[in-house]
Each structure stands twice: as C-alpha cells, then as structure tokens.
Design goal:
Layout lengths: L2 H16 L10 H18 L10 H13 L1
C-alpha cells in the first residue's frame, strides 16, 4: 500500500476509534478512489483466471455410501 494511502487509512482508523459509529463522517475521497481502482484491477485480473471445472462425483458417491449405511 502506498504511503499516502496508508497515512489516510491511519487517520481514518484513529477517527473511527474516537467517534461513535453513526455514519456521519465524510467520505475520505482518496481512500474511496483507491478502493475503486483496486476493485477494478481485481475484476480485470479475475477475467483471466481459468476456472477449474469441479466435479462432485467422488463427493456425491461418498455421501450416498454414508446414507446407505444408515
């Protein structure tokens, strides 16, 4: 995490520790921008992750064998 973002996070944490949680504090725009950019990056990277095809046959067979025992 960049130093400028870390310092803003530290400020926000300090403020959150000292104030009651009422949703009244203003948005910290630099943090909001950082979060939106990171989410966008993660979504882009996720597009290139190959999804493993999962088969449940082995687990299903095991479950059925347990049910048959009872």
């Amino acid at each position: 995490m960049e130093n400028s973002i870390k310092s803003e996070v530290d400020k926000l944490l300090k403020m959150k520790q000292e104030l009651p949680e009422m949703g009244l504090s203003p948005r910290v725009q630099v943090l909001n921008d950082y979060i939106e950019a990171e989410l966008s990056n993660i979504k882009e990277k996720a597009k290139f992750i190959e999804e493993d095809e999962k088969t449940w046959n082995l687990l299903n067979d095991y479950f059925v064998s347990l049910v048959k025992l009872n």
